[in-house]
Amino acid sequence: MIEATTGELEALLSGAASLSRAGNRIAAIAALVSAVLIAPDDLTAHRRLAAAYAVAGERERARAEYDRFIARLEARGASDAAAVERSYAAVLFPPRSSAQIAITGPAHGLTAEQSVALRRVGVALIAIAATLVAMFAAGAEIFASGGPR
Questions:
Q1: In CATH, what number does 1-82 get?
Q2: 107 pLDDT above the threshold of 50
Q3: Which member of 31, 51, 60, 120 lies 3.0 to 4.6 Å from 16 by CB, making a disulfide possible if both were Cys?
C-alpha cells in the first residue's frame, strides 16, 4: 500500500470532482479509486467513490463501496455515523422487488424522472436528519464536558 500526503489526496479528490463536473465519469472514478488505494482510511474518498459509482449507474459497485465505507466507520467506532450511512445507502439502493417496481411504474402515475426526483428528496431528508443528529451529538458532548476550553 502506498502512503499519500494530504496534498496528493486532495489533488485526487479535487481532480475527480473537476472530471465529474466535466462529464468524464470514467476518469473521475479512476481518480477516486486511486485516492482510496493510497488513503484507505480516508472516509471522504470512499464515500465519493461510492457516489461516483451510483451516478454512473454501477449499482453493485456503489453498494459494495458503501459497505466498505460503513465497515471503516464501524472500525473507527463511529457506530452512529455508520447507522446513518446504512440508512442513506438503503435509500440509494433499495432492494428490487416486483412490488417496488410496480409502485414506481405508470400505474401510480410517476414517470421515471419523478421517481428519481422522489428518491433524491428522500436522500436529502436523510442527509438533513444525519446533520442534525451529528450537531446534537456534538452539542451534547460539549455540554457534558462543561463547555469549550
A1: 1.25.40.10
A2: no
A3: 31
